[in-house]
Every structure is written in structure tokens, then in C-alpha cells.
Amino acid sequence: MRTSILLIVCAVLFSLTARADEAKDKEKAANKKIKEIAGVAEFLRSVPKHFATLQAVDAARRRVTLLVEGDKIAKTWELAADAEVKIHGWWGRLDQFTIGDRVWVWFTTDRQKQPTGILMICDEPSEQDIHQTVWKISASTTDRMTFHPDKGADRTLKFAPPTPSPARSDWVRFQSAGDNLRLLMDQPSFEKARDAQKLALRQRWEKEGLPGTVTFLHPLSGEMELMLDHEAMRWGRSLVTGDEIQIAGTPPIKAAVRDIRPWREHTQLRLVAAAADQGDLRLGQRVFVKMKPPAASVDAAQLPPDIGRRKGKEERIEWFLASTYCTCLVRGN
Fold first, then answer.
1. What value, to the nearest 5°, has the Cα angle with vertex 158 and ends 156 and 162?
2. Domain 209-322 fold
3. Phi and psi torsions of 140, nearest 5°
4. Where are the domains of the chain?
């Protein structure tokens, strides 16, 4: 009898152990599959990134003409609908660039990995800020200045008298045009330029609205959804349920906010608008959302304004994951 009971217990334990091992194997397989999918989905690592000379800008049609370094012929490129534009370490607009300047560009690609358009374009100070490159002045004459980075090759640029003011910091930011030095900023000057750019964009957001895309329309219920661009993250996520916004138009379309959710670098707005007003909209349409400007502290804060809004454990985990811009571990992007 005891032997039978012992055999039964052993059989049960063996079965439980086998099931536990099977569950672990399934979990490992699932994790491996997720990693495989994530590896395929990872985008930034394979995005072509090049420096180029800006030869022309058509802001109205969102097109730029670039001579990519290493190429012999300039080409005109169209910006993606939600392409990011950066000036002086902050968001910008195409009409703020200076023709002839050196810019840094990320390109969208097709399935054959051939460039098809522009995903991001920024000036040199913004690129230097993104990578946190420590550029220092290593030599200077009456008409030339050599810059030495903490990583990479030196650059020597010409300048016309008078000599640019000496840097008052451990690093500098500069903008070149060909082999000429067009702009030189020490740390205080760069931060001052960034603050000025923040103010300029704040004024544009107030006047023009926040850029976004129509992603869902349901005229029968009046519900609709918009996806705000990356640059609108702080303003968009400062909204709360019940707030009123307007979608720019003639006349503007009024809507009430039902919910706000982070979606990687974008912000998803669930709205309620009059069914008749939705007749002027279509899926994929680019729009500008006007709202009451938040306090200036929202732009300066280190963390998003909705960080403490989700209370439940699952909601907070979802908020954290959805607020992660990129999980690809590509540094400097």
C-alpha cells in the first residue's frame, strides 16, 4: 500500500515538474519569437543617416533639395507626413533653415532598403546635441578654426574677420556651410538659442496648432481619433478628459477630449465632434489641433505632464511601455 502511494506521489510530482518545464520551454520560445519580431521591427539601426548640403527648401510642399556628402548630383526629397524637423536642439520648421548649411538627415526606405523620403532633418548644432559630442577648439588662426571632437575626425573651417568670440565652456556647437564656419556657440549661447527656439515654436503652436493625423472617424457616434506628432507630446499630454480643442479649418471644428494616451513618441487623442463636421475630414488627413496653451513649465519639465495620471498597476505599466520612444538600444539616435 505504501509503495503504491509513493508511486502515485512520484508520478504526480513528475507530472507537475514536466508541466513546469514545458511551461518554461513555451515561455522561452515565446520570448525568442518576440525578440525575433523585435529584431525585424527595429528600424532606427538600419535607417540611412547622412550629412548633406541644403540647396533648396519648398516649405509649402514639404520638400528639400540635398547634396548628400559623397554624391555628385543633388536630389529633391519629400518629407514624411510626420517627419521631425529640429533647429538649435529643439523642434523647428523648414522655413527656419539657411540655404547652403550642412544638415543631418534620416531617410525612410522601401523594402529593398532604398531611400524614399526624409524621416528627420536637423541642423548641425542639433546633431551635435543629439549625440552629445564634445567639440573643442583645438587651433585658431586669423581666418581658420580647427575643431576636435571626443570621437571622430577634426574639422577645420574658414571664417571671415572678425574672429568669432572665444568659447566660455568646455564644449562648443557650430554650424558650417561648405568649408565655412557660419555660426559658433559656446554652452551658454547654445542654451540661449535653444530657449529662443522653444519660444518661437510655442508661438507657432499657439497660432497654427499642433500637427497630427486623423486616424479614426465614426460620424454615427461623433467619435474620432487623432495621432499627434512627436513634437506635440508635452502639449497634447497636458490635456485632460473634457477639455475642448479645435481642429483648424474654415470654420474650425470643435471637439471634446474623451481620452489621451501615449503611443511611443506620438500622442493619441480620442475625441467627440459633431457628425456633420466629420464630413470635412478623411482618414490619414494632416490637421492642426488648437488648444489652450499649457504653462511654460510643461515645455521645460523633464517628465511628461501625464506621468501620474494612470493609477492602476496595469495602466501604469502600459503607460510606461507606451511612453518608450525606442527600445532598439541604438545609442545617439
1. 130
2. Elongation Factor Tu (Ef-tu); domain 3 (2.40.30)
3. -155, 135
4. 46-128, 132-185, 209-322
Buried b (16+ CB within 10 A) or exposed e, 229-239: bbbbbbbbbbb
Question: Which residue is associated with the grid cell 543633388?
Answer: 74
**For the chain, counts of helices (H) and of strands (E):** 6, 17
Under a CB-based contact definition with an 8 Å cutoff, are residues 172 and 193 in contact? no
Give the Cα separation of 263 and 323 in Å (integer).
Answer: 6
Q: Residue 330: what pLDDT? A: 45
Statement: the pTM of the whole predicted model exceeds 0.90? no
Give yes or no on whether 46-128 and 209-322 have one common fold: no
Question: What gap in Å lies between CA 194 and CA 203, rounded to an integer?
Answer: 14
106: its cell numbers: 534620416
How is residue 311 written as a grid cell? 493609477
Please answer whether residues 229 and 210 qualify as being in contact, where contact means their C-beta atoms are separated by less than 8 angstroms: yes
Averaged in consecutive runs of 10 residues, what is the pLDDT profile of the chain (333 residues)? 59 59 63 51 76 97 97 97 96 97 96 94 97 92 93 93 72 95 94 95 96 95 95 93 95 95 92 92 96 89 78 75 60 44
SS3 state of residue 159: coil
| Cα–Cα distance list, 48 to 25, 120, 175, 333 (Å) | 38, 11, 22, 12
Q: Which CATH architecture has domain 46-128?
A: Beta Barrel (2.40)
Can you tell me the distance from the alpha carbon of 231 to that of 65, in angstroms, rounded to the nearest whole number? 23
